[in-house]
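Why do we bother with holo predictions? Because pocket geometry can differ from the apo form. Keep that in mind while you read this record for adenosine-5'-triphosphate.
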Amino acid sequence: MMNKSPGGADPTLTGLGTQSAQSGTGPEGTRPVAIRARGLGVVRGGRTVLDSLDFDIHRGQVTGLLGPSGCGKSTLMRAIAGTQAKVTGTLDVLGRPAGSAALRSRLGYVTQAPSVYLDLTARQNLDYFSSILDPWLNRSDRRAQVDRALTEVDLTGHADALAGNLSGGQLSRVSLAVALLGTPELLVLDEPTVGLDPVLRRDLWNLFHRLADERGTTLLVSSHVMDEADRCERLLLMRSGRILADDTPDALRGHTRTDTIEDAFLHLVDAAKQQEEATR
Ligand SMILES: Nc1ncnc2c1ncn2[C@@H]1O[C@H](COP(=O)(O)OP(=O)(O)OP(=O)(O)O)[C@@H](O)[C@H]1O
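The structure, written out:
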C-alpha cells in the first residue's frame, strides 16, 4: 500500500529543485519535495480564490497552513487532494499531477466535515473503509489495522459507540483514523484540531510528529489558530488567496522582529497592504 521511503527519500523525486520557491534554504534544502506548486490558481464563483501560488512542501515534515478564515486554505487542500475544479498552473503531488488516480492510496485527506457513517460505530466505520481500501486483507490483519488506527487517535475507549453519539472532536478523530488506515505517504488535514480540548490537541500534534519522524509521512495541517504555528516545522502563511510567507516559525519571528507568529503575521499583512497601496 504505502510506498514507504525512510526519511522521505524517493529516487524519483530526489534532485528536483528542493529549495523553497519563496524563501529559505535550511535543512529543507536537502529534503525531497512532496508538493510543488507553480503559478497555482483557482477561480470559484467567478472570484480568484487562489492567486498564482508558488511553493514547495518537503517530505517527512509537518507543514502548517495558517491564515484567517476565508483566505483559501481549504481550497488549496482540495486542489492538492484533487477534488477542486478549475485549477490552473502546475501542482505536483508525490511526483504526479494532483488528482492522478495513482495518488489515491498514497494520500490521506481529512476535510473539516467528518465523513463517517453516523449509524455505524467507530470500529464499524473503520472496518468498512478498510474493506474498501484493501478488500483482500484477511480478518486478523484487518482487525490489527483498525485497532492500530483507533489507538493512534486515542479512540479505543469509544470504539463501539455509535458515531452519531460521539462528540464533534471524537467524530473528527474517527475521520482521521480512516485516513490513517492505509498508512498514506501524505496526509492533508483541514483544521483537525478545531473543537478539541488542549490535551487532545497536544496529543494529536504529537501523533503528527510521530508519523513524520517514524514513518517519514508528510503532513500538511491547516489552522486559523496562530498559536498552533509553533507545533509545525515549517509554515505557509496565507492571506486573501496569496502566500504571505513560507518559512520556519523561528525564521519568521526573526525576519519580522516579533515574538509571536501572530505578531509576525500582522506585520506581514501590514507590509503587504502597504505594497498593494504603493502599486495602485
Ligand atoms: N463555491 C464558491 N463560490 C465562490 N466563492 C467561494 C466558493 N467556495 C468558497 N468560496 C470563497 O473562497 C474563499 C476561500 O474559501 P476557503 O474555504 O478555501 O477558505 P478557508 O481559508 O479554508 O476558510 P476557513 O478557515 O473558514 O475554512 C472564501 O472567500 C470563500 O468565500
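The CA atoms of residues 38 and 90 lie 5 Å apart.
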